[in-house]
Amino acid sequence: MKLYFLPGACQIGIHALLAEIGQPFEIEKAARPGTPEFEAYTQINPKGKVPALIRDDGSLLTEFPVIALYLARTNPERELIPTDIEGEIRVLEMLEYLVSTVHMQGYTRARRPEKFTPSESDHAAVRAQGLKIFQAGLDRAERQINGKDWLFETMTIADFALFYLEHWCVLNGIGSLGPSCQAHHDRLWSKVEIRRAVESELIT
Ligand SMILES: N[C@@H](CCC(=O)N[C@@H](CS)C(=O)NCC(=O)O)C(=O)O
To answer: Is the N or the C terminus of the chain less surrounded, counting Cβ atoms within 10 Å?
Structure first.
């Protein structure tokens, strides 16, 4: 398997998940729009985004929640998603919320307001709107963890989506973490394989 990445982007959640699972994988740098390498990257992933996973049969998988589900399902011994329907849908519900709302609607507005409005005079308002959505997501996660180790009773793929959001918060000072989220972040970050994987993006 090969994971395409942009240093520090949301694929750090998938990268951490791959490191936790422990099956062999490679990483390769993707390209940003506007760079000379971008055209070549769109031949690999026509969406031009990360994460993108090339599976062992050569096929491409995109979209964070789908890649995470695929990895959980293909490594059932790691028990990263419940097998009962109620448990499964609650994990997917949280995963989807974290990626589609907290990241895409919240963090992206706070960090990249120009993606939402052409007018620079609107940027401050868009940023504020994004921060509100992002912080509401972190607060929701805080209440759900509420002193436990994970979002649910055991570690699941939803924890890896929360991890990248927490990591962005810690690194970029956007939003703030309550004590349960801070401990959750540190619990994953203290795993040597995860830290080594995420840090390798900066030197690859
Ligand atoms: N819906 C996609 C979103 C992926 C996404 O927006 N990734 C960002 C990085 S966090 C990206 O590729 N940004 C590059 C760009 O838009 O220039 C998913 O869930 O995987």
So the answer is: C
